[in-house]
Amino acid sequence: MAQGEAGTAQETADPGDATASRAERKERTRRAILDAALALAADSNLAAISLRQVAKQVGVVPTAFYRHFGSLELLGLALVDESFRSLRSMLLDVWRHAPEYRDFIDGSLPIVAQHVRENRSHYAFIARERTAGPPRVREAINHEIALITRELSTDIARTGAAEQYSPEDIALLADLIVSFVVTMAERLVEDPDSEERTLAEARTQLRMLLVGALNWRSR
Q: Domain HTH tetR-type, which positions (predicted)?
């Protein structure tokens, strides 16, 4: 009886193991497709590569590509989402623990520099596709940057800045800060060896910006 029960348990475990294995293989293939697209687009942009090139790089047939992404544009959207998801989470954590909005600078810049360092191919992709990518990919990148800007606006207002700034001026300040940070990230991608100097210059520029912001009063 015990032996029969053990045999039944073994038989029922196998389908689950096989399912887990298939899921793992599917995820590995998906990851390989994303990495191959990043590598192929490194010297040009997403619009210049083909689905067949990506499939060949991964070692799968083109139909296997469609099981993961309906098109190269959808693959690009997945890369945009992947690039911004963890960055937004880290920045939100910094901003929500900053006592004053001027502290956002010293907290945010090292986080962005570290993220660029650890995900350089993603940031290079974003920098290229932001201006030269397919329309939906460009829109997705701008949408993510707008989300970060809105989240920063909310946290600036939370620190008490709303007492001296109108909502419109808070939004303008957040947009200026995020624009500086985006430019810094692009410089870090282009010249990784100058990270220390780039960070120092960005910090100085943003502090100069805040000198004016701290003395600004909305009408």
A: 27-87
